[in-house]
Each structure stands twice: as C-alpha cells, then as structure tokens.
Amino acid sequence: MSHEHVTSPQAQRRVVYALGALFVIYAATLAAGWPQKATRLIVEAESHARQAAAAGDANQAEAATDAHGEAKHAGDGVESPQEAEEAGAKGEAAEAEAEPQGASAGEEAHANAEKPADHATAKEHPPYWMVAPFVAMLLVIALFPLLPWTEHWWESNLHRFYVALVLAAVTLAYYLFIYPHPVEGHWPAHYVSQPSPSGLHWGNTWAVFANAILGEYVPFIVLLFSLYTISGGIRIEGDLPAKPIVNTAIIAVGGVLASFIGTTGAAMLLIRLLLDTNAERKHVVHTVVFFIFVVCNCGGCLLPIGDPPLFLGYLRGVPFLWTFQLWKEWLFVNGCLFAFYFLWDTFYFYPREAKRDRVADSRQVRGMRISGLWPNLPLLVGVVLAVALLDPSKAVPGTDFHPPLYLREIVQLGLVALSLILGDEASRRANQFNYAAIIEVAALFFGIFITMQPPLQILHVVGPQLGLHSPAQFFWATGALSSFLDNAPTYVVFFETARTLGGTELVPPGNGVDHALLVAVSLGAVFMGANTYIGNGPNFMVRAIAEKRGIKMPSFFGYMVYSICILIPLFVLTTILFL
Question: Cβ(50)–Cβ(393) under 8 Å?
Fold first, then answer.
C-alpha cells in the first residue's frame, strides 16, 4: 500500500472555506459588472473576426470572378486560332494570378479582424534565444526526477514552484526591460499593446502575463483540479480473477472513461483496482505499461476534458464536440492495444505464472465494490456540461445569453465544494486522497505557461518557414516532442504553427487551423504522450503507485523499449490509414 499523506477532514474544510471566499469575491465582481464587460469584449471580437473572414472569402471570390471575365473577354476578341490560344493562356494566367491576390485580401481581412483600427498587428518576435527559459523548464521537469543529486530535492512542490517562478520571472523581465516591439494581447479579448517610450514596458509585460495566466492557466488548472478532486471521492475496490480478459476489460473501461473524466481521473480511479486484482500474479509490469498506454494517454482524445492538450485547443476556439470526430482513430489505436495486450498476456505471460499463484488468485477473489458515486458521478457530469455550455465566446444553446467571464470556472469549483461537503469521507480516505499531485501540476504549469509565450510569438511569425505542411509531418513532429516534453505545451506550439499556414477548412472558423492539420496535431499530442514516462502527467503518477505496491517498473529507457516496439509501429499504421 502507498504511504502517502492523506488529507485530513480539517484540511478539506479549509479548502471549502477558501472556495466560499472565492465565490463571494466573484459575486462582488458580478455586481460591479466586470465579468459581463469582459464577455461583451470577447463577443465583439469574435463577431468582428467572423465578419472579416466572410469579407476575405468574398474578396477572394470576386477577384477570381473578375480575372475569369477578363480572360473570357480577351479570348472573344481574337481573330485567329493562334491568337485565341494565346489570349486563352493569358486569361488562365490572369485567373491564376487572381487567386493569390484574393487569398492575400482574405489574409489581410483576417489580420484586420484581430486588431484595433489604430494599431497594426504585431509582426515582430523575440530573439530565438528567448526560448531558453521554456526549454530549461521542460528539461528540469524531465531530468531532475531522474538525477541522483536532484531527485529528493525535486520531490518538494515548493521547490518545483521556485524553479517555475524563477524562469517565469526571467521571461517577464525580458518583456519589461528589453523587448521593444508591440505584443498581441488575448485577454479578455484581442488587442495590441505598444511598448512604452519611458523604457519600462508595463503594458507588454501585463499582456504576456494575462495571456498566459488569466487566459489559459486559470481555466486549465481549474478543470484539472475539479476532475481530480471529484473523482478522488469515488472508490473502486475489489480483487477479481487476474485473467487476461479481466485485465483487458479494466484497461478498456479506463480507456473509455479517460475521454469523459480525464486521463488523470480515469487513471486514479482504476489503477488500484488493477493492482489489487493482480496482487497474486508475478508478471504484472506489462499490464501496468499497457494501462499507461491506454488510460493515461490514448484513451483521452474524444473530448477536450480527456487530455490537457485538447483542452488548450478548446480554449483557443476549437468546438467542444469537434474531437468526437477522432473516434475512428481512437477505436483503431486503442482496439489494437486491447487486442495485443490480450493475446500477449493469454499466450505468453499468464501461462508463465506459477501454478500456486494461479490457484491463489482463483481463491482470493473479492467482488468489485464501488462507493462514492453519489454525489460525485453527477458532479463529474456537471463539470463536463459546464465546460461545454459556459464558454463566454458562445451563447448558451437555445438562448442569446453569453456567460460572464469565469462563470464556467466558478461553476466547476462550486461542484468541487459540493463534492467535499456531501461526499463520503471514507471513500477519500480509502483512496488515500491528497492534493499533492494537483499542486505539483499547478506549480510546474505556472512556469510552463509563462515561459512558452516567446516560443509562441516566434512560431506565429516564422511558422510557415519550418517546412511542415502535411498532416503526417505535423503528427510526427508534435508526437516526437510530446514524447520527451509535456504534451500540453507541445500541442500549443504546433497548433500555433499550423495556424500560420491557413487552409480551406479552418477550425475554429475565421482564425483557426486547417482541419486535417488539427487532426494530426491532436492525435500526435495525445497518442505519443504515451511514448515515455514524461510525455503526460499521469504516466509518472501510475508508475509511482505501482512501485509503492512492490512492482519493479521499467527504467526510463526500459519503458521506451515497450513504446518503441509496440506504439511506434502502431503510429506508423495510423499515419498510413488516417493522415
């Protein structure tokens, strides 16, 4: 059993009190009208972007039509077949030339849709060396847990926050003291901040901080906190017969749940049941590895709440239900993993178990028992509905009402408070529930979201020059970085790169990413986060829980042997069939 500290009922009450204070503060801001004003700005910016997009499409069509008319007129006025042929060629050339002119007009309209009338859209970017804080942040996350002289120091969430704070401060200091160009702000709606002639660029620094923390980090961490805390009140326990079909069923259920309660929630919900079921078996490592493959990663691509990268896409305007279009890729990848695990365990590992262990497993059976479903299961559904329906940029379906800014997050936190007040404390205690894992995520991502602002600015300008054009290229580029860096910021980097390339079917419309490229980036970030322990947060969490149960999990590179031999061929097939 794990010996982690279990959060006491007194600590839970303090969390509820803190949430209550937050609700009072938000109510005061509503009374002052601040969230409503922010929502009006967001709606106006969205409407402006759509109108400009429509104007750009109309300009493109008009340019093509005019060119075609000129070509036809030139062809009609000739007297010989040779002249007609030459005129027709000129007409085709004129029509072809009109297409980029129309596209240019459309691009200009899109750009104008995202800027105030008195400011040009920011075209400059920070120097390339300003990616250093971001790279340093990700390298620290990857290496400090593995190095003997930093391993124990890194276990403290306070120490993690120190690192995040220092690197975030370096980034913000650059914008305050050095960066001399305009910065595009996106919170609460789009604007362009100009550098100050006095020397200290407070407006630019605020724009960067607000983009990172108020625009993305707050919604991101509130969603994770809500799913983590509410699912922590549901207890699934039992000791089922550890046969291949039973283990496959547990992994499959986790793969389905991952899209609906998040990879973290599904993993924390089912890993203990899986380990209890396999307590009498000796060959368990491969089972945990496949659990990481499916439940912690590949199962989470059907909804934005399934995996953090997809939620960041949702914050950038991707429709909530768009990811359901990935069901064929989800079914193929996860179905292959289910089948491979079942066959491998049936014909290789299970027969190698000692007879006495199989007998003990068949005798020591304890039926599965679930506690804490009320009220936590309805509350989890409430989180999903809040994320889907309370986006301030969209009207609630069937109404003209646009939710005030942060109402979505306040509703989620309200559901957390209900879970802590009404939920069964015994279930949390049996789960050994505490906030250590979510505090770790909060501390690290504070630094990640700020330090990734310069790379995002750079990619916004130079993205088309990277040489990435096809969905397959984006799938493997996104996946390669998601394997060794955290897949959430990696998704953002390639989302923004794809955005600069334009396309014929943009998601979201107006200023989004081409549909095929968005599919590739989404699949690459979610699926290939399974390639290493550090690709996605739940991977390390599951490994730690398994090791505390006495299972000797593979090393960092030992785990990669599994992923290279099993996942990489599967992803090659995915590329051939779907991209």
Answer: no
How far is Cα of residue 161 from the mean position of the Cα atoms in its chain? Answer: 21
Q: Directed axis angle between helix 285-294 and helix 244-277, to 10°?
A: 100
Helix (H) or strand (E) holding 191: strand 191-193
Pairing state of beta strands 506-507 and 513-514? antiparallel
Cβ(311)–Cβ(220) below 8 Å = yes
Distance CA 537, CA 544 (A): 12
Distance CA 87, CA 81 (A): 10
The pTM for the full model equals: 0.82
Q: What is the 3-state secondary structure (H, E, C) of 90-128?
A: HHHHHHHHHHHHHHHHHHHHHHHHCCCCCCCCCCCCCCH
Closest CA to 225 of 390, 69, 419: 419
Residue whose C-alpha is closest to residue 289's, from 345, 367, 356, 241 = 345
**pLDDT tens digits along 384-435:** 899 989 999 889 988 999 999 999 999 999 999 999 999 989 999 888 888 8
What are the counts of helices (DSSP H) followed by strands (DSSP E) for the chain? Answer: 24, 6
Give a three-class secondary structure readout of 435-454.
CHHHHHHHHHHHHHHHHCHH
Peptide linkage before 188 cis (omega within 30 of 0): yes
